[in-house]
Design brief:
The chain has 263 residues and is α/β, with parallel strands linked by helices. Helix content is 35%, strand content 18%. The longest helix has 19 residues.
């Protein structure tokens, strides 16, 4: 297993850990896995690295530092530091592709916790770049409703120049995983009244309501979906526990391998 560190060329860019087997071809499928609020990409390297190598994927792990323009990477953008986290990741992938390091026209995308927030929001804005989407226990979601401003909904937000493509997003293969014990508040869960009233008071309930809202939207738009929520037994929120008790990483790569032909 070869692991390389791709440094960020500027403050407005992000570094990447890239993991692959020796001799992996340049056109190998790419899996991008995004850390949570605690910013621990090495936990994901340990869980996903062997699976990626065995499946012939290139694993890419971005690092959104907790200082500077990406403190709110989960929401893609902050009006105080308007550098787009989604565009920073796409730039980094395109930079590696331009250097002949990988091919990332389309990639499989997973994020856990804050990374799950980031992942589904990137996929809403750039569904053509995403081959398959996996979300692990996001704290809260962008609702498929333009009556709410971004990032709570798809409505316009002052200074945020992006437009979601809901129909194309709903056509993606999407899986959501949440631990069965991840059903209450904790110190990092956003609990503003607007979020709680719309989505519920815990990650499990929020995931259930969001998936239901997506299914309703797909039905109204006449879109065929490949969307499912799976509850992980005996697991709470911690990524390592979700992997140890629920086999989360294995489920993620099983999902990615099902759609690898389109990557």
């Amino acid at each position: 297993m070869q692991i390389t560190w791709e440094a960020a060329p500027s403050r407005d860019d992000i570094p990447l850990l890239v993991c692959r087997a020796a001799g992996t071809p340049l056109d190998a499928p790419v899996a991008v896995c995004v850390h949570g609020y605690g910013r621990q990409p090495l936990d994901m390297l340990e869980a996903f690295g062997p699976l990626a190598v065995a499946a012939g994927f290139v694993l890419v792990l971005p690092l959104f530092r907790d200082r500077g323009p990406f403190r709110q990477y989960q929401q893609l953008w902050s009006p105080r530091k308007p550098v787009r986290a989604d565009l920073a990741l796409l730039r980094a992938l395109d930079r590696l592709a331009g250097q002949g390091c990988l091919s990332a026209r389309r990639f499989c995308l997973f994020g856990h916790s804050g990374g799950g927030q980031f992942a589904h929001r990137l996929a809403l804005l750039h569904p053509a770049r995403v081959a398959a989407l996996g979300i692990g226990a996001a704290g809260w979601y962008t609702w498929p409703d333009e009556s709410w401003p971004w990032p709570l909904g798809l409505g316009a937000a002052e200074g945020f120049g992006a437009q979601a493509n809901l129909e194309e997003f709903l056509s993606l293969p999407i899986r959501v995983w949440v631990g069965e014990r991840d059903d209450g508040a904790d110190e990092v869960l956003r609990d503003e009244p607007s979020i709680t009233a719309l989505q519920g008071d815990g990650r499990l309930k929020r995931a259930q309501r969001w998936v239901s809202a997506l299914q309703q939207q797909a039905q109204q738009l006449g879109v065929t979906t490949d969307l499912a929520l799976e509850v992980l037994p005996r697991a709470g929120h911690d990524f390592r526990v979700c992997q140890r008790r629920g086999g989360l990483a294995n489920k993620v790569f099983a999902h990615f391998e099902r759609v690898r032909a389109s990557v």
